[in-house]
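Hi Y.,

Following your request, here is the sequence exactly as I used it, all 125 residues.
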Amino acid sequence: WVKVIHCYTEENQIPENLVEYVQLCDCVYPKIRVDCVLVKGEFSPAMVQYIAKRISVPVNCMFINCPKIDFKHSLDRMGGVRVILNSEKGSLLDKRKPTTNLDSSPSEGGLRLDDVTPSERETKD
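Below is the corresponding structure, written out as tokens. Let me know if you'd prefer a different format.
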């Protein structure tokens, strides 16, 4: 069972075709029930806890879209929800410093997973 939950404070904040897209997913995947739940209220750590309790799902089993830069709560206060990356500009990931690219060549300062033996992987993790 998948529940797509969208919090909003004003009705114009509900994406135009959200309900229809969720219904489409429900039809495309007949073995999985997919529901759309609209919750009036500000998305916040308290709202995450409220929803988790209301639907009886642990917070660490819930997913959120990557918040935009102007999101007023830090992710570490969200109770352990898992972040799904999005393609929108202006997300919190845009502010993040780049890390080593595992696909870059060693000459570029990167590290390829093929270049690390299993015993080295255990010590580097």
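The helical segments are 18-28, 45-55, 118-124.

Thanks again,
Q.
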